[in-house]
Write a structure and sequence with these properties.
Elements (H helix, E strand, L loop, with lengths): L12 E4 L23 E4 L1 H8 L6 H12 L9 H16 L6 H9 L3 H5 L5 H20 L6 H44 L5 E4 L2 E5 L3 H10 L4 E4 L3 E3 L2 E3 L18 H21 L2
Antiparallel strand pairs: 1-2, 1-5, 2-3, 3-4, 6-7
Helix pairs in contact: 2-6, 2-7, 3-7, 4-6, 4-7, 6-7
């Protein structure tokens, strides 16, 4: 029986060809922040299974998932020392004509010392993932609505960054205790999705899998991300194994070119090759 699912054919890959703008995590994608991530693709079947088996690919997904879990015990307020120092510098930037925008500047401010602080950690990659997820969560909460000019953006930006700083040690300790369990859970979900809707990976990192993939991809495309669709099909004696005409037309970016033409061309080429093979076998 032919497998059916989100992709509609074997070996289908969706590649995001542009980076997302500096912004909070995408809710439909597990609240993962895509800034800095690239080479995103949905993998199925053998390629998916091979990718899922690597336990180290779940750092970003687990850190993002565990931040709200650990917030129940990691809820310290920003220290005045941190906020005063931050806002003083930020207001100086405003006076010098720098356009400070909370949603753009908070995360950068929050992660300034990440690499140095994580360099001595037992697992530097996990440390950085936890750091980023904690910063993104606090900045998202602080910057969601800012009513005012540059100075007000400074206050909110520093509030988010300094709140994350106050809770960083707590988040790291809390996540360390349950991180491995989270990785195994995501790996099981990933492996179980390879014969169905597949899993989304960016830069080799696991993002999301299974029935959540369509909503995640749609959300990314809604943000205007250019999408390139590629297909690998098996051409047997009876023709094409896979429905190329269905493809991903419904998932093309708003205002972008339809994917129908590339799929039609690929289908025509595959059909031509199939007919040539059948004629040559007579």
């Amino acid at each position: 029986m032919r497998r059916t699912g989100f992709l509609g054919l074997m070996g289908f890959t969706v590649s995001l060809t542009a980076a997302l703008p500096a912004s909070a995590g995408v809710e439909e994608c597990g609240n993962i922040r895509f800034e800095g991530l690239s080479n995103c693709e949905v993998r199925v079947t053998a390629e998916c299974s091979a990718s899922c088996s690597e336990l180290g690919i779940y750092k970003t997904a687990c850190a993002t998932k565990l931040v709200p879990v650990c917030k129940t015990e990691c809820s310290l307020s920003a220290t005045p020392t941190c906020t005063d120092s931050c806002t003083t510098q930020c207001k100086t930037d405003c006076d010098n004509g720098v356009n400070v925008i909370c949603s753009h500047n908070c995360f950068a401010e929050c992660t300034t010392t990440r690499d140095v602080e994580c360099s001595g950690a037992t697992d530097a990659v996990q440390c950085a993932a936890t750091w980023d997820a904690n910063c993104d969560s606090e900045c998202d909460a602080q910057c969601v609505t800012v009513d005012g000019g540059c100075y007000q953006h400074c206050i909110e930006c520093c509030g988010g960054s300094c709140t994350a700083d106050a809770n960083m040690d707590c988040q790291t300790t809390c996540q360390d205790e349950i991180f491995e369990e989270c990785e195994h859970e995501f790996r099981a979900n990933c492996e179980g999705s390879c014969s169905g809707d597949g899993a989304l990976f960016c830069g080799g990192e696991y993002i999301i899998s299974g029935s959540q993939v369509p909503a995640c991809v749609s959300a990314l495309l809604e943000q205007g991300i250019a999408v390139k669709a590629e297909a690998e099909v098996t051409i047997g004696p009876d023709g094409i194994d896979g429905d190329l005409s269905a493809g991903m037309c419904a998932y093309s970016p708003r205002g972008g070119a339809s994917l129908a033409a590339p799929f039609a061309a690929l289908a025509a080429a595959a059909g031509w090759l199939s007919r040539r093979r059948r004629r040559s076998s007579r």
